[in-house]
Amino acid sequence: MPSCAAYCCNNSYKKGFVLLRFPTDPILKEKWRIAVGRDNNWKVTSNHRLCEVKHFFLEIFNYKAKY
Ligand SMILES: [Zn+2]
């Protein structure tokens, strides 16, 4: 059961949150990575998700609108 990748966030599907996959676009992915608030050594993998309710910048909403 995936849960949110963000630092100090443990929202999950189980708790009723919508979790989004990281974008494949490298620029967007980097923005998401920054939004996660982890250190620079942290690598995004295809298993990581970010919950919908926190961490979001305008660019991410734009991404969602296009999705
Ligand atoms: Zn979260």
UniProtKB/TrEMBL annotation:
GO molecular function, one term: DNA binding
Keywords noted in UniProt: DNA-binding, Metal-binding, Zinc, Zinc-finger
Coiled coil: none
THAP-type domain segment(s): 1-67
Pfam families: THAP
PROSITE patterns: ZF_THAP
Top-level taxonomic group: Eukaryota
Entry keyword annotation includes tRNA-binding: no
Protein name per Swiss-Prot or TrEMBL: THAP-type domain-containing protein
